[in-house]
Amino acid sequence: MTSNRLKLNADKTEFIWLGTRQRLTKTSVTPLQVGGQLKTPLNRVPDLGGIISELTMYAHVKNVLSAAVCTVDLRQLRSIRRSLSTDARRTLAAAFIASQVDYCNAVLYSVCSTVTRCLQMVLNAASRLVVDAGKF
Fold first, then answer.
1. Rounded to two decimals, what is the model's pTM?
2. How many other C-beta atoms can be found within 10 angstroms of the C-beta atom of residue 57?
């Protein structure tokens, strides 16, 4: 790394052991020495805006939804929806909600349906807001 003029920042270095739950129980959780510091493995690590945890991606979806960005934006848009045209509602819903949900969605490929169902509920609520339809 020094030949490329790169320097390892041991303070920001994090790592995670990935595998099935059965395999992880057989793995010893010992700290690694990185740049003179001992680092213990974490349960969750951020990677390019997504959160990786046990390869289920549930932590990433929970983070997207618990950031309250999606639900707060939906509530705020719902309060002013009568004064907006359908095109304006569509644009705002795409800008605020869909952009949050779509970020890092490639890592959600082939995850279980219970994980993606949470995101689908937010997208359904956004589409109901755009067309001014009720839940039922």
1. 0.60
2. 21
Nearest to 118 by CA among 77, 81, 71: 71
Q: How confident is the model at residue 73 (pLDDT cuts 50, 70, 90)?
A: confident
Q: What's the CA gap between 117 and 61, in Å, rounded?
A: 10
Residue 107 to residue 110: CA distance in whole angstroms: 9
Residue 39 near residue 32 (C-beta atoms within 8 A):
yes
Question: What does the alpha-carbon distance between residue 120 and residue 135 come to, in Å, rounded to a whole number?
Answer: 14
DSSP of 6-62: ----TTT------S-HHHHHHS----EEETTEEEPPPS-EEETTEEESTTT-HHHHH
What does the alpha-carbon distance between residue 125 and residue 47 come to, in Å, rounded to a whole number? Answer: 28
Show the tokens assigned to 124: 């359904």
Structure-block tokens of residue 69 = 């960005």
pLDDT at 122 over 60: yes
* Eight-class DSSP state of 95: I
- φ/ψ (deg, to 5) at 80: -115, 15
